[in-house]
Design a protein that fits this description.
single chain; alpha+beta; Cyclophilin; 2 domains; eight-stranded mixed β-sheet; seven-stranded antiparallel β-sheet; 22 strands
Length: about 325
């Protein structure tokens, strides 16, 4: 059988193709995009024996229900996810970070993420996707990427262009750690805010709003007072920057963020905390902790080393 594909019986809430993202396009207004949780993206590919930069299916909250048609293939799901495999008349409760073999007619039902946001589905092979600027990553706000830049819909087919011959079963024991404090360094407009505003930012708790998405995480809580100007000339943004608009509620820029913005920036989430930041679900509490740039650099190196060690153990 050469025609290998998934039929989407239920698309889920926000199901897209993602990979490592796009480099060096900020100057023309194209954000990085890519998998929100990079570590779980990499582990998903490694568990099915893929190159680490191949596309995966990313889903949020409730994932897709997929029916597989084709030759035997391995799949793996990473994140904190509840899912089932339906093989003929049997239902199997799936475990994250463990590969499973699918045969023709089997189904994967990704029921929900568990007190988190994003999960990843990989296959031992390659999806048939179109690249745009070297990436398949879908940005639904700008309609960029494969699938015409749109999230998946019911009734679609996800075609598979290649299946790996080596389908060795793999698994690893990994626990998605929760973050008590999100570590940040001071932003370029830190002194725009009053002493009380700065104190509130580092000492008080904020609630993640339901309005959060791949573009940004909106927070609600005590207002952060601006004593200089609530608007600035628009300038470049990057992933993890925390802007404070006129209403005093912070917004954290995430992977599909706009490339410029005119709100003052009070801080930047360190790269080592980004993967765990994006998994904080709406309604959860969040608190910030200031660290120095040199410490942020050290923590990033350690996080990268830890990620590579996890990959090498699979």
């Amino acid at each position: 059988m050469s025609n290998n594909y998934f039929e989407i019986l239920r698309a889920g809430i926000n199901t897209t193709f993602q990979d490592k993202g796009r480099n060096n396009l900020y100057h023309i207004g194209i954000p990085f995009s890519g998998a929100m949780d990079n570590r779980n993206y990499l582990l998903a590919n490694k568990l099915v024996g893929n190159k680490l930069d191949l596309p995966v299916i990313e889903f949020a909250y409730q994932g897709p229900l997929l029916k597989y048609n084709g030759d035997k293939i391995n799949i793996a799901i990473t994140g904190d996810v509840i899912f089932e495999l339906k093989k003929k008349d049997n239902k199997i409760q799936g475990n994250c970070y463990e590969s499973y073999q699918l045969e023709n007619g089997d189904e994967i039902d990704i029921l929900s993420t568990n007190k988190s946001v994003y999960g990843y589905l990989s296959i031992s092979g390659e999806y048939n996707v179109k690249l745009q600027w070297g990436s398949c990553s879908i940005n639904t706000k700008a309609n960029i990427g494969s699938n015409n830049g749109k999230k998946f819909d019911n009734g679609q087919k996800i075609n598979i262009s290649k299946i790996n011959l080596n389908q060795e079963k793999k698994k690893t024991n990994y626990l998605n750690s929760k973050v008590e404090n999100i570590r940040v360094i001071k932003g370029t407009n830190f002194d725009y805010f009053s002493e009380d505003g700065k104190k509130i930012f580092f000492e008080k708790e904020f609630i993640v709003s339901k309005l959060s998405d791949r573009m940004g995480m909106r927070l609600e809580g005590p207002k952060i007072e601006n004593i200089v100007n609530t608007n600035i000339k628009s300038e470049g943004l990057l992933k993890g920057v925390i802007q404070v608009p006129t209403d005093g509620n912070p917004i954290i820029m995430l992977s599909d963020h706009g490339t410029i913005g005119g709100y003052p920036k009070i801080g930047v989430v360190i790269s080592a905390d980004y993967d765990r930041l994006v998994q904080i679900s709406p309604g959860s509490k969040i608190k910030f902790k200031e660290i120095e740039l040199s410490d942020a650099e050290t923590l990033f190196k350690l996080y990268e080393m830890e990620t590579q060690n996890l990959i090498s153990q699979i």
